[in-house]
Please model this.
Amino acid sequence: MSTAAAAHPPYSMPRVTLGRAGTATLLLLPIALVNAMGFIVPVLNLLRMSFYEALAGGGIRETFTLASWSGLFRDAFYVDLIVNSIVVSLSITFATLLVSYPIALYLHRSSGRWRTFLTVLVISPLLTSAVVRTYGWIALLADQGPIVGSIAALGFTPPRLMFNTTGVVIGLTEILMPYMILSLLAGFGRLDPRVEEAAMTLGARPSQTFWRVILPLTVPGIALGCLLCFVLAVSSFITPKLLGGGRVFLLATEIYDQAIVTLNWPLAATLSMLVLIIFGAALAVYARVLRVIE
Amino acid sequence: MMQHKNLSAAPSASTESNAHLRLDGLTKRYGESFAVASLDLAVPKGELVALLGPSGCGKTTTLRMVAGLITPSEGRIVVGGNDITAMPPYQRDMGLVFQSYALFPHMSVAKNVAFGLEMRKVPKTEIATRVKDALAMVRLETLAERKPRELSGGQQQRVALARALVIQPSILLLDEPLSNLDAKLRDEMRNEIRDIQQNLGITAVFVTHDQVEALSMCDKVVVMKAGKLEQIGTPVEVYEQPASPFVASFVGRTNRLEGMAKGDGTIQVGTIALKVPTRTRGPVDIMMRPHRIRLLEATRDPADDSTNQIHGTIKRVTFVGDLLQYHVDVEGSEIIVEAASDHGRGIRNVGMPVTLSWRVEDTMVFGRSA
Model:
């Protein structure tokens, strides 16, 4: 027994050694599987579905046809829907950026407990669901609500703030702000207070320092935040549905209507693929922005 | 009454006439503590002045107050007779070189240098020539289109210098500009900055914790400690006639002994009586520069009024290339002696009894307050 132990030094068992690539593959395997089953296969299914023929009453005939796709671009309603979706989502993204940027910049410059407190404050809306927050906005923006009431009390003709695009933009802007602020903060790494001071000593007024130094250095954060918020705005469904009151037609709400109400699944699939194409385009723009600033 | 007025006005008028930059009782308080406590300083036009001191002595705070990046709690900053204490940094016309260089990372070298000129609405063609000249001055013409991150530390440093100088500022401020460079580059840049400063005849304030930089580059050295001024003088004055034990030990190396001055030109240190060039009385610190002490054979020379001689034993010898450092034990205190090393010859050994000899005038004496 003892001689055997001496003949075989410890740890002499044959070991399976994985190279770096092998280890990486092994670690990526679970997520690759989940993604394949939960994302890629369904997307391919959707793609196939968009080329099937829709029958009246919700039936689907599994024969290849371009009817859904060609109908999309021939029907003025759908062209308007696509353009409107993109315009509204861009407006929401821009409004979110505008109101989030000062907050993110202030947060970036604060420190210690105050910063922790403010960060928690920024993230805390995410603890409530978008549905609840949307109903909150309905209460605020309603015709008998406090905002309309105050404007009327001042003697102005109150604008309609709900069941139109304005309401959707207001609601989604607030709902998307935490994502925008966090993205901006993540991209503010290159902002160095010394560099701002250098600009000032070289004669730049605060506004010039902002436009020439601070803003260019925060472009990575702006690009990231805008990409994220645009994608979330295009795909958001509950808020436009409730605050739009059925009068604001956007891609996400139309997909819901086609899939659940009209039961035209091939058209819903086609619209879904279109949303994916828009996301692809947004990603391409994002990548281009990052390349240009590098 | 009239006479009284003249008396009080006279000193400030005389400093006003030749001081380009003047600090009057400049103070920065943070709560109860003073970062800078009532600092007075007058810098004549064209001089390079070093603010020298350990970290936390208030030298950088002082510089940042001059640049306008920190608001003073009290006091005035006067440039060329104009009080600029309340002026925002972008109107002050000062060139500031940061320790971290603080170049604009999204702009090319040329754009970095052009920035200050663009802010001043200088015509485009003039900007082009001035940027070119400024880059030529720091020998970086060929790198004009590079981004800062593509440059070495020394090159970034020179861009920062060109950017600060191209606007022809009334005062150049340098905040530890050499501390991020390696030793060889630091020596080069030291000479380069000094040459440029003298060629332009620009008034400059240089913040450093490195006494070699302060002594070798500057016209005047301002030694600071805990927000207060310890001494102002030429490099030679500060080194040869330090005003306090702090200055003596911070500027150059020193040995320190404690003793009792008898008031007759001698000081008793343990059982040894040392001759000193002063007749103070009471407890004192005695300091000697290591390189002013000579190491002799243990045999005692005939007594000499102009030198001090004490006996000791070598405890340790350190070879530092151009120098030999002897740590000599004298009645339990350690005295360091530095001698030029001569091809490694003549090194004395540990345990050897020796005599330390230095001139009386090289003995620095500082009274100790109880």
